Fold this sequence. Notes:
The chain has one domain. It is about 10% helix and about 30% strand. A nine-stranded antiparallel beta sheet has the order 4-3-2-1-11-10-9-8-7. It has a two-stranded antiparallel ribbon with strand order 5-6. The termini are far apart.
Amino acid sequence: MDLPSAPLHFPENPIPDSAGRRRFRALARSAPWLSTSLNLEIQVPSVFDRQPLNENETVKVKIRQREAIVVHNSVGEMIFQKETFSLPRSREYLASKNTTWQLSSQLSTPVFTEDQLVLRRPKISGYGELLPLDYWQGVLDPVEIAGEEPASLDLAFDHPTYIHELAELTHHGRRALAAVLSPGHTYKPAVAGYPLVPAGSRTLVVLDQSTGICLLRKVLQSDNPSDPAPDLIAHVIAQDEYYINSQFQSVHWLDQPVIHP
């Protein structure tokens, strides 16, 4: 899709060159390798099902790798937790699903660019059923807007999104890279029904330069204005903090029953 008559969101910035576009796509691929843990505040749009989070609009989230998550409300009460580090690792578990054979990001090495962003990304295990809300997958790992590098030579344009504008900015005190995007013909959201860049739209996506996550998704122009996509907003409180297992468990490990063989 191309809308040459659309007003510029960053009129003071030049047209993105190939180096700038490659850098933005590399940042969008890099989130799993930029942080060992995240401490976030996420606003949950009212149009999405908030039931797993007890209808809370703004929540605080701690994530360790892709193995543990805990969510608290504004007064500090735990409203959701899930972890995989205490799951049994028997033969039945390993055979239960093919995702158990995929490596986590810390056990795989991508091809990096000169500025230590991901150029070529290996297949890694995703969040699976860890997250309480499906759309968080695209926010926490926005690889869907990046595609692979190098792009296929079989198609004239194989990148999943068109980058119309680029800008480096400060977003709520954090260095960020922002782009105005529209979906290409190969665009496929990480979770069906929750695209970061909706069909027929020009969408502002702001990526945090330190963590690679999506801080803001805002639809600027849409072919379907009667059904607008909500703004997606996240704030990074901290990254790479050390979290012990008990922070992600509803029952402390000392209180768990002992299983004798």
